[in-house]
Design brief:
Elements lengths: L1 H43 L33 H26 L1
Helix pairs in contact: 1-2
Length: 104
């Protein structure tokens, strides 16, 4: 029974690590798009209108579109990494307890 609990805890820890990585990758893509638009805006700042200039970059991030986009939030994933580590440590403790009861 302890081996099943250890496996479930290890699965939960793996899920937390994968979810944190997914969130970080999405945040990095939003950040890349925001930087792309900001560089474009800075290159045009103070210059007269030029019809032949490069158009605004085509981005889909809500943090880079529109006239007043919301600020990019802080980098996500740190809390999930912490919880993943704690749940992983608990899985290891339960596994050691299961091995101790099985062989002890």
């Amino acid at each position: 029974m302890l081996f099943v609990v250890a496996a479930l805890l290890a699965g939960a820890a793996a899920y937390l690590f994968v979810a944190a990585r997914r969130d970080i990758l999405a945040w990095e893509e939003h950040r890349r798009q925001v930087l792309l638009v900001r560089r474009w805006e800075q290159a045009r700042a103070g210059r007269p209108f030029d019809q032949a200039a490069q158009p605004r970059p085509d981005v889909d991030s809500p943090y880079a579109t529109g006239p007043n986009p919301p600020p990019l939030p802080d980098r996500p994933g740190q809390t999930r990494y912490l919880w993943g580590g704690l749940v992983g440590a608990c899985a290891l403790f339960v596994l050691v307890a299961g091995l101790a009861t099985h062989f002890g």
